[in-house]
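Next up, a chain.

===
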Amino acid sequence: MYQYIKGIVEEISIDYIVVESFGIGYRINTSQNTICNLKEGEEVKIYTKLIVREDDMSICGFKTKEELRMFELLNSVSKIGPKVALGILSFVEPKKLGSFILSGDVKALSKAPGVGKKTAERIILELKDKIDKNNIEFNCVLRNDINRVSLEIEEVVQALVALGYSLSEAKEAVNKCNKNCLETEELIKKCLAYLMK
């Protein structure tokens, strides 16, 4: 239904953004990979996919066609829904993910949130012949340079809860403070400063 939405980034949250276009604010679920490449107030073009369920309709979107394509591939795998697909794309960039799949790297892929060994094997089995071999980074498999942004955010939330803050307070603080993909320790300090105001 929507090929893309072009507008101004009005809000950036942990797992979604709000883009205003012609007076309408679109809540778009997205990955940390996309979020880290956006800034509030900038004009963007977000490539989108409308997700329709029996009880809900939502939009998933990404800054690049490449990431949208990978999301669609992941979402086509049996037992993998939009939430898990977004979690995987928050964990590893599309080119690296393609290299994991083509090389059959179950160990690396199973480290993604919501993905165990069996799910990783199923992703590789179902997508190996669908990956664009000209658009991957094999060298990243050797470096095992995995994007752990989503895991680090979860660590920060858990750390704040351990310090006595409620889960909602912790999530709010991370939402407000994680604008530039900070390192874990730096983000914790910034969140504590926010919570103590």
In short: Residues 87 and 113 are 6 Å apart (CA to CA). The chain has three domains: 4-62, 66-143, 149-195.
